[in-house]
Design brief:
By secondary structure, the chain is an alpha/beta fold. The protein has 13 helices and 18 strands. The strands form 4 sheets. The chain has a 6-stranded parallel β-sheet with strand order 2-1-3-4-5-6, sandwiched between helices. A 5-stranded mixed beta barrel has the order 14-15-16-18-17. A 4-stranded mixed β-sheet has the order 8-7-9-10.
Length: 444
C-alpha cells in the first residue's frame, strides 16, 4: 500500500461509508459506535481524517462504486487515510491494498475486533491487512449496538453466512457458512434497541430464513418468531429477504397472527424460466414459486411482496426472458429489484457460455423496470381509502409542514404534520396516489 502524496496528519475525525445490504448497514453502525468509544469523532467524509469504506461485491457495479470513492478521496487537497472492509475487501484484499492512501484492508471477520483496530488506527499509520478465510468462521460473531443513529427503522443482524451454492453468487465465499445469534442474545439486542427508542426492528441476515440451522434442532426462524411473540414488544417487527423454499407453512403460520409483524415479504425469485433457474442452481421451479406466492397472498391479503430478478444470466434466451416477464406480470407485486447479470470471479457462472449481449441485457432490464413501476402504482392505488399506521421518518425535503414515513406493508406516505412527529407512529387515511407516493390525512 502506498500514497502518491502526503496524507492529512493523524486526527480524531472518522467517517464510515456503507455500500450494499442491510447487514453491512448494521455492521457500520457497530463500527461507528465502537469508534466513538475509542475516542473518534464521527464526521462527514469530506472533513474526516480517516474514512472507513464498508464495501459490497455482489455486482460489478458495487465494486466500481468503491474504486470510485478511493480515487476521489486521494484527489482532495488533504486526503484522508482510508480503510476498506466488507465483502470486496474479503474477495480482493491485494487489489484494494494497491490503491493510494489505503492504510488497512480488513476482512469481514475482522469487524468483530474493530474496538482494538479503531484504537490501533489512532496510533499506527503503517499499512496492514487483516483478512482471514471466511470458511473458518463457524460461530456467529456478535456485534452489539445500543442505537442506530438517524434511523427510525433499525436493522438487527441475527444471522450471517450462506450455504446455498447459486452459480452466480459470490456471497458464500465472502461471508462464510451459515451461523446464527443465539435466542437469548437476540432478545438482549432487541431490548437494548427498544430502550433506545426505536419504533421498528428489521431482523436481517445474509440468509435470514436459515436462522437457527447451526443451533439446536428445534431452533429456526419460525420458532424465533414464536418466541418473540411471547414478549409484548412495543414496536413493529419486519423481516428482511427470505429464500423461497424457507417460506414454509410453519413460518407463515407463525407470522399470520403476530400483531407486531409487518406484512412485507422480500423474496429472491431471480428467474421465471425453469431452464435458467436450473443453471443458476436455484432449487425450485416457476410453477412451485407461483403456488408459494399465492399462499402468501391468501394468508396476508394486504402484504407488500417484492421480488429480486436477475436479468441476462448466461444461456438465457429471449423466450426464457419472455416467460420470466409473463410470470411477473401475472403476480400482484408491490415492487421489483432488477439486477443485470454481472460475472463474479470465482463463481461457476463467470465462465458459463453463451453470454447474453450487454445491450440486450440493458433492454430487458429497462423493460422490467417499466413493469416494476406499473406494479408499484397498481399496488399503491389499491390502498387508497384505507386508514393505516405510518412510522414517520421526518419532514419531506423542501416541504415544510409535510412529513414522510412508511406503513407496516411498506407504503411510502406523505401527510401534513410537524417535524416533531419523527419516530412516532401516526394514523393516516390514504387519500390519493401522487407519482410514487401516497398522500394522506392524519386521523385522530
Amino acid at each position: 500500500m502506498s500514497a502518491s502524496r502526503p496524507l492529512r496528519p493523524a486526527g480524531q475525525r472518522l467517517a464510515v461509508l456503507t455500500f450494499g445490504c442491510k447487514v453491512n448497514q448494521y455492521e457500520s453502525a457497530f463500527l461507528i459506535e465502537q469508534a466513538e468509544a475509542a475516542g473518534w469523532q464521527v464526521a462527514a467524509p469530506e472533513t474526516a481524517d480517516l474514512v472507513v469504506i464498508n464495501s459490497c461485491t455482489v455486482t460489478g457495479r458495487a465494486d466500481r462504486q468503491v474504486r470510485q470513492v478511493l480515487r476521489q478521496a486521494v484527489r482532495r487537497p488533504h486526503p484522508p487515510r482510508l480503510v476498506v472492509t466488507g465483502c470486496y475487501a474479503q474477495r480482493s484484499p491485494e487489489e484494494l491494498a494497491g490503491f493510494p492512501g489505503v492504510q488497512a484492508v480488513l476482512g469481514n471477520a475482522a469487524k468483530a475486533f474493530w474496538p482494538q483496530i479503531a484504537a490501533r488506527l489512532q496510533r499506527d499509520e503503517q499499512p496492514w491487512q487483516q483478512v482471514s478465510p471466511m470458511d473458518l468462521c463457524r460461530q456467529f460473531q456478535p456485534l452489539p449496538i445500543r442505537q442506530f443513529a438517524g434511523h427510525t427503522r433499525v436493522f438487527v443482524k441475527i444471522q450471517d453466512g450462506c450455504g446455498h451454492q447459486c452459480s452466480y453468487c459470490i456471497v458464500p465465499l465472502v461471508r462464510g457458512p451459515e451461523r446464527s445469534l443465539p435466542l437469548d442474545q437476540v432478545l438482549e439486542q432487541l431490548q437494548l434497541l427498544v430502550k433506545g427508542g426505536c419504533q421498528e426492528l428489521v431482523l436481517t441476515g445474509i440468509n435470514l430464513s436459515r436462522y437457527g440451522c447451526d443451533l439446536a434442532a428445534s431452533v429456526n426462524l419460525a420458532s424465533l418468531c414464536r418466541s418473540l411473540q411471547e414478549n409484548a414488544w412495543p414496536v413493529r417487527i419486519r423481516l428482511s429477504s427470505l429464500e423461497p423454499l424457507d417460506l414454509t407453512a410453519d413460518l407463515l403460520a407463525a407470522l399470520e397472527d403476530w400483531q407486531q409483524f409487518c406484512p412485507h415479504f422480500h423474496i429472491p425469485l431471480q428467474s421465471g424460466a425453469d431452464e435458467v433457474l436450473q443453471a443458476m442452481g436455484r432449487p425450485y421451479r416457476a410453477a412451485w414459486f407461483v403456488e408459494m406466492f399465492q399462499e402468501i397472498c391468501a394468508r396476508f391479503p394486504n402484504a407488500a411482496i417484492g421480488l429480486d430478478v436477475l436479468v441476462g444470466f448466461p444461456t438465457e434466451t429471449a423466450a426464457e426472458y419472455a416467460r420470466t416477464r409473463q410470470l411477473l406480470a401475472s403476480l400482484p407485486l408491490a415492487y421489483l429489484h432488477i439486477f443485470p447479470f454481472s460475472p463474479r470471479p470465482g463463481t461457476p457462472a463467470a465462465s458459463l457460455t453463451p453470454r447474453v449481449d450487454r445491450r440486450q441485457i440493458d433492454v430487458w432490464a429497462r423493460d422490467l423496470r417499466t413493469l416494476a413501476a406499473e406494479k408499484k402504482r397498481a399496488f399503491y392505488q389499491r390502498q387508497v381509502g384505507q386508514v393505516v399506521e405510518v412510522l414517520v421518518e421526518g419532514e419531506v425535503a423542501g416541504r415544510p409542514g409535510l412529513v414522510t414515513g412508511l406503513t407496516a406493508n411498506y407504503l411510502r406516505v406523505h401527510c401534513p404534520g410537524p417535524p416533531t412527529w419523527a419516530n412516532q407512529v401516526v394514523r393516516v387515511r390514504l387519500a390519493e396516489l401522487s407519482g410514487s407516493v401516497l398522500s394522506g390525512v392524519p386521523v385522530t
